[in-house]
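User: Quick sanity check before I run a bigger batch. Here is a single chain. Can you write out its predicted 3D structure?
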Amino acid sequence: MRARRNRRENGTSDTNSWMTTYSDLVTLLLCFFVLLFSFSVIDAKKFEAIIRSFQGSLGVLDAGKTIDEDQYISQALQSDRLLQEQLEAESMEWLYRQLDEYIKENDLEATVVLGVEERGLLIRFKDQALFDSGKALIRKDAETIVISIGEILKQNERSIRVEGHTDNVPMRSLLYPSNWELSTARAVNVVKFLIEDVGITPVRLSAAGYGEYHPIADNNTAENRQKNRRVDVVILKNTFELNEPNSNEVTL
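Assistant: Done. Predicted structure follows.
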């Protein structure tokens, strides 16, 4: 009788022993997925789906999560954001080098200036670099400049904003009755040229005319008024939301 009872007890123990093996297997699988996550940047939604699969299918983590799901999702999102910022910075740096090289090789430093704004990379065409006084058609001798710069910009997919600016001297033209019309027409003509003659995708481009109302210098002198007459081409950062221009750029 004692031997039979011992066998029953042993049989019961043997029957429940598979739970230990199952638990070890589940733990190893969980560690495997955590290691995969630690070596890569994954999509937060995919990681959340993995967590839910553990909760629903394998029966683990139901009572209490052994993994801080929110923490790992936050880390994944942060890693992805940092990666995107790094790639964006490298892309902007490459654009800057290419544009700077072109400007110096063609002795355009007096008329075309590069700068960096919070919004992105700035290409500033100074007074009469592209247009004759009071006109909005790009001069024939300036078309080559726009084409060359446009070909550089064409090599990425970033959004481009073209902004026209004037001084505060009133317009006396039937075609452009105010500085609003002149600044807007200049910006639109640059955009159209980049589309039709350079081949930049239209969805990347936008145009804005600001007239005399966003000066970079006061209009008290002829020299300062000349500074305010300009066309700015801004290669925008991915995260930038279009709003009013920021004139506080830092020239590199």
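The beta strands are 112-116, 120-125, 160-165, 205-209, 230-236.

User: Great, the batch can go ahead then.
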